[in-house]
Amino acid sequence: MDRIEPDELSWAPVRRVFLRRVLIRSAMTFAALLAVVLLFAIFATLPAGWGLLGAAILTAGFAIEDLLRWRNARADLWQISDGHFLHDDIDGRLQVPLSEIADARHQFGGRVTVRLHSGQRIVMRYLPFPAETAAQLRAAAAPPPKRDPQ
Questions:
Q1: Which of 102, 72, 77 is nearest to 87 (CA)?
Q2: Which of 1, 52, 103, 115 is most solvent-facing, going by the fewest CB within 10 Å?
Q3: Alpha-carbon distances, residue 118 vs 26, 96, 99, 130 (angstroms)
Q4: Which domain holds residue 65?
């Protein structure tokens, strides 16, 4: 895939952010599975040890699936160049004029959602500074101030 050299701004996913999200998601999954399994063990009068092992195995499976997503996510590249917002990934390139961007918001989990005037949304994941990225996109998409002809 040919990538253009960024003129102004570019963003790419960061492995550290991705791994932090996998770790948080795995911990939450393990806690939820363990709670369910321990409740089941109490009501079924079963030993709790099997539940710990089962929750760990299921959590490991989910974590491995999440880790495999990095193969696709690491190819993402978002940039602003020549008045367009570009998204390169393994499927190709999306090119949107900056005038089509209605809003860019930082959302929970370090995501930035770019909303277009057509209602379509583009999600930017695993960015190290999502709030700053959203602010940069809003600033780039804002129309230039009108000059007063005097």
A1: 77
A2: 1
A3: 36, 11, 11, 23
A4: 11-72
Q: Are residues 28 and 60 in the same domain?
A: yes
46 in a domain, yes or no? Answer: yes
Q: What is the DSSP letter of 99?
A: G
- Helix axis angle for 49-68 and 15-43, nearest 10°, is 150
pLDDT confidence band for 148 (50 / 70 / 90): low
CB 149: neighbour CB atoms within 10 A? 4
Instruction: Specify the amino acid at residue 25.
Output: R
Note the pLDDT of residue 48: 76
Cα 126 to the center of its chain, rounded Å: 5
Pseudo-torsion of CA 68, 72, 78, 84, nearest 10°?
Answer: -150
Please give the model's pTM, rounded to 2 decimal places.
0.76
